[in-house]
UniProtKB/TrEMBL annotation:
Signal peptide: none annotated. The lineage of its organism: Bacteria, Pseudomonadati, Pseudomonadota, Alphaproteobacteria, Rhodobacterales. This is Small ribosomal subunit protein uS14. Keywords: Ribonucleoprotein, Ribosomal protein, RNA-binding, rRNA-binding. Part of the 30S ribosomal subunit. Contacts proteins S3 and S10. GO terms for molecular function: rRNA binding; structural constituent of ribosome. It comes from Rubellimicrobium thermophilum DSM 16684. PROSITE patterns: RIBOSOMAL_S14.
Amino acid sequence: MAKKSMIERERKRQKLVDQYAARRAELKARAKDKSLSVEERFKATLKLAELPRNSSPTRLRNRCQLTGRPRAYYRKLKISRIMLRQLGSNGEIPGLVKSSW
């Protein structure tokens, strides 16, 4: 189980990413638009740098929905390998059969 503070920090970051997503996309588009003048593109870049750092999606970390574990994360199921094995052994994941030979 991950520390509760780390899980809460990640939730806070996710909230900021959602809040600033539209503004960040607009500023990025303006900064890359070649039809605008160099000054306008530079201003857009400066405005982008003024946004909170935690509003960037690259600062997010994938975590297990059940335990908060940050490593060995399966994106499709949104759980860690440990929980995948445990839930699979209990028969709680449809179509998953634990292999044994």
